[in-house]
């Protein structure tokens, strides 16, 4: 089989693939480019050929032949059937030791299946999370590659070169075997859902409590961006809230319909958490909040019909209220991340991935949507204790939440009294109180289970499993 001079190849040159190819070329790599419809490949080379060295190829055979060995092929097509079709076309052209990188948004069980199939043929299959959207793909995304550790030896340096950097450190590391990379990307997206919902609830509270305009709330978020909350999402929230709609001259957010959509990674995260039995209540509530917002018939039936029974909300001290909401937002955010990292730990144990959670926080510091200063604190927590059972129990986070817990309670209580829906704030506080409880009412649940189903129970005073004869109790 012929070999060429390209160090990497990209097939699938829609927006993401095109930008990844340009990013490789801009970093000095010779990039073979291919697209099913060759016109897309030609336009990439015509528009951006001056950015580096591209090897244009019109057929899959030419594309593969243009690559030096071990070949590194980045597949950037739609998840699902398109990815399988491209892999099926590629595999017969490759040789043992070659590396196929799926940089699309595959669901991790598909990645596990594909990795096992390619491993049988002596090929490396690297399911890779790429976060940061179009802009990230071009200028430096956060990259989460799975697959064999061996594949990372030759692939890793190239991916690290094109990734975002924070303090000179690449936002890319080997995550773990087979589907670990796509799994971590999925949880990243779930955390993103929670982060966005928490920010939206804070906005709603400031609007309801203060009667503040979008622009005024935008100023609050801009101020928050210089503290613990400093992050890409808080920063863009400040900008979005201050944006004026060109057509109407109104605040932009006031003309946007209040129905959120989703592509499905939040749903996957929640489904997997149910499978693993990990309570990721923040992510789940965020996912359901989007579903509720889009439940038009239910909302139409309830609006103006279900009684609210609330009084007007006149916050006496706006400055103190804003500070309470800030603290409640930060504490709820810590809970959402703590839960997401629990899910990573559980999956890592289930699938034998040995994922370094501190390293995940490190590669999310730049390039991706949840990039934030606060992620350094998470990395440090896992450096202090790699086996940390609960992020909230790390001394830094315990102290950070302790500082805000009274404010958090005031905010959630006020939201309930005044009828402002705060599913993520409220469920995060309930999780906090649940996980720290001396004794939960699960004793009663277990007793009920023994009563009707002889499911047995354990005792507080003796080891072993017990069943009570309940026949005399009814
Ligand atoms: P976008 O929505 O950003 O345009 P996309 O639809 O997610 O991108 O991805 C489309 C990419 O997947 C294109 O490169 C597309 O090839 P064409 O330009 O020829 O349409 C590629 N693609 C989709 N299905 C494919 C298949 N079965 N085989 C090969 N490539 C495929």
Bound molecules: 2'-monophosphoadenosine-5'-diphosphate
Strand order of the largest sheet: 3-2-1-4-5-6-7
The radius of gyration over CA amounts to 25 Å
Q: How many extended strands?
A: 9
Number of helical segments?
19
Mean pLDDT: 97
Q: Specify the biggest β-sheet.
A: 7 strands, mixed
Tertiary shape: globular
Helix content: 40-55%
Taken in chain order, the helices and strands follow as EHEHEHEHEHEHEHEEHHHHHHHHHHHH
- Work out the strand percent: 5-15%
GO biological process, one term: D-gluconate metabolic process
Catalytic activity: 6-phospho-D-gluconate + NADP(+) = D-ribulose 5-phosphate + CO2 + NADPH
Enzyme class: oxidoreductase
Protein name: 6-phosphogluconate dehydrogenase, decarboxylating
Report on the architecture of this protein:
This protein is α/β, with parallel strands linked by helices and 474 residues long. The protein has helices at 15-26, 38-48, 60-65, 81-90, 108-120, 133-139, 149-162, 180-210, 214-224, 232-242, 265-276, 281-293, 296-302, 318-351, 357-363, 375-384, 395-418, 423-435, 442-453; strands at 8-11, 30-34, 53-56, 72-75, 99-102, 124-131, 142-145, 165-166, 169-170. A 7-stranded mixed sheet has the order 3-2-1-4-5-6-7, sandwiched between helices. A two-stranded antiparallel sheet has the order 8-9. The longest helix is centred in the last third of the chain and has 34 residues, at 318-351. It is globular. 2'-monophosphoadenosine-5'-diphosphate (ATR) is lined by residues 12-15, 35-37, 40, 77-78, 82, 85-86. 2'-monophosphoadenosine-5'-diphosphate binds next to helix 4.
